[in-house]
Amino acid sequence: MLSFVARRIFQSVFVMLAVGLIAFGMFRYVGDPINNMVGQDTTLEQRAELRKQLGLDDPFLVQYWRFISNAAQGDFGMSYRQRRPVSELIESRLPATLELSLVSALIALFLGIPMGIYTALKRNGIISRSFMTLSLIGISLPTFLIGILMILFFGVMLRWLPSFGRGDVVDLGWWTTGFLTKSGWQSLIMPAITLALFQMTLIMRLVRSEMLEVMQTDFIKFCRARGLPERSIHFRHALKNTLVPVITITGLQLGSIIAFSIITETVFQWPGMGLLFIQSIGAVDIPVMAAYLLLIAFFFVIINLIVDLLYFAVDPRLRVQKT
């Protein structure tokens, strides 16, 4: 197990280096940040001096190595737009994104898995058909449209929930949370449901298809021939064998919740990293954009490592092969 973890960490280092190279190289062609930092009256000499101060006239490899070396120490440079350290900007926006992603992931998991099990065991029921219809809506409609419709219905017409912002937050030192205030929870409901709906329907359909496939195997038929109770067959044997492929897709989807929160944060003006990234694109703020992609890649690496470790806990065949 230790050698496996060490090998994955070693591979993750190369993944982060590759992501940093791609991000830093790609963002060099989105525009000139100097044009967004100076006014029309700025002379060419002043522009050249500012470019030199920012290190933009250095060769690409020199800029990339400087960025990676500083990023390894938690220093992502200065924001071109806000003239503040990027690490400070990320630290101020990270709690909002993580709280939104956490609530969305819990909604997707705790609703998607039971709905998938139910629709597999009660395929012809009215509730099952309703769940399948809901899943079609969740997969077909784009996230931004779902968010806009929820704002129109619950925010504008009914006036039940706030349509933008994070509400009141409590400062806990380096972390700010909306979990401790009523307006924080009210502001979180619509963005969390919007972000979770697609993931929930995807998890539900995956669990349903895997459950139906497992229920047709000889292993389940043998369990019935032994006279085991249906509840034991469904939840102790069939569900456990269903979880192995589900863990893979679910882990990747939970990572994508953080990565794709950009749309939801933009629609609801949620003050997270996704909204910061969108604003940075308009200002050609390369340090912020590159730092955001590196952070998202880091989250995916951590989630994939956790998924691989869960394999050992769920599938005994992997433990036998390793021993």
Your description of this structure?
It is a single chain. The chain is mostly helical. The protein has 14 helices and two strands, in the order αααααααββααααααα. It has helices at 2-26, 33-37, 44-54, 60-71, 86-121, 126-140, 143-157, 182-215, 218-225, 230-259, 261-267, 273-282, 286-314, 316-322; strands at 170-171, 176-177. The protein has a two-stranded antiparallel ribbon. β1 (170-171) and β2 form a beta hairpin. The chain is globular and about 85 Å long. The model has no long low-confidence stretch (mean pLDDT 80).
Q: Whole-number radius of gyration?
A: 24 Å
Unreliable spans are none
Instruction: Calculate the mean pLDDT score and round it.
Output: 80
Overall number of strands: 2
Layout of SSEs?
Blueprint: H1 2-26, H2 33-37, H3 44-54, H4 60-71, H5 86-121, H6 126-140, H7 143-157, E1 170-171, E2 176-177, H8 182-215, H9 218-225, H10 230-259, H11 261-267, H12 273-282, H13 286-314, H14 316-322
Helix pairs in contact: 1-13, 5-6, 5-8, 5-10, 6-8, 7-8, 8-10, 10-13, 11-12, 12-13, 13-14
